[in-house]
Amino acid sequence: MRLAAFALTAKAYELAKTFQRSLDNPMTVYVSAKVAPPTVAAETGAGIKTFAKLEEAVAETFTAYDGLVFIMAAGIVVRTIAPLLQDKLQDPAVVVFDERGQHGISLLSGHIGGANVLTQQLCQAVGASPVITTATDVNQCQAPDALAAKLCLRPWPKVRIRTLNSAVLEGQEVCWRIDKTLPHSVFYKRQLEQAGQTAELCVTSQCLQFCAEEKDRPWAVILSEPNLPALPELPQNVLCLTPRRLIAGVGCRRGTPAALVMGALDMACRMIGRDRSFIDALASTVVKRHEAGILFAADSLARPVHFYDHAQLQAMIARYQLEESDFVKENIGIGNVCEAAAYCCVGEAGGRLALRKTKFEKVTVALVWEK
């Protein structure tokens, strides 16, 4: 999860730097040029940037990051982000803190965007009180869309999220069905059962078939995107969820053995609680299109590998404001390979960073979930 923090005052700037030091996730701090100390110019390489106008800075970064943390009055934040909002499936997590770090408010995208979890993490880091207002969390209920976010599943249709959450608040139990032909159906079943849910595996043709006594229950059904029904055919009490694609952006030194590439992919996936079988595609720069280690890894995984030219990678660097390495840029002509390539692969829909660029022996890997 890539994060940005915005500070309007000197106290807010200090709190933002505390957040930056406390988190494993990469965070860029944006501070108003009016209050930025003279040392900021020397800190730009450490993820510190200045801005002249908050509205312009937020407009430029709103879709570039997975989560935005504002250290200022909530009213300022509401008025600033209002023109930029799309919907709960696309908007980033938005969290607001007062400059003294006493309270943290999950303002937007609490479940799917991860703002509730982010709020709790940040509050724990500075000893603040988390303010969570989503009804299911307040009533200590397990929301289906919150579970979907943890499992990296895409809910459809959006309107049914409210239907199922309302049912949960009324005390009804959501029953889960999983298409047993999905590659990781057993993983989803195990995770749901560990979360206290009732889940069953079904053949594809039975996933959306319900007997008379089942028709009034709320259902969450995990199946592949090609098997989604037409909306008019979907029962009113059913929410469908489809697995998001996981893209592995890969960079390596020339002549790196395939064993090191595979080992790096293994370790990267374990760092996000998955194994390499979850990878749906590999991505890299055209400079590496003949790299045997990357090609062999794709063949071993039986996954496609996509190579992108400098112009395509640079477009993603600009869109997501990715950090660039001077060393890499000097050697191959582009300053960010694995993250930029992964974002290229997810396309216009965008992606959510699962693992920032991580260095292994002769290999770098970044993992991105498709939105």
TrEMBL record:
UniProt-listed PANTHER family: COBALT-PRECORRIN-5A HYDROLASE
GO MF entry, a single one: lyase activity
GO biological processes: cobalamin biosynthetic process
Stretches assigned to the Cobalamin synthesis G N-terminal domain: 57-137
Name recorded for this polypeptide: Cobalt-precorrin 5A acetaldehyde-lyase
CobE/GbiG C-terminal domain mapped to chain residues: 246-367
Keywords: Lyase
Domain of life assignment: Bacteria
Species this protein is from: Selenomonas ruminantium
Keyword Cell membrane: no
Pfam families according to UniProt: CbiG_C (PF01890), CbiG_N (PF11760)
Coiled-coil residues: none
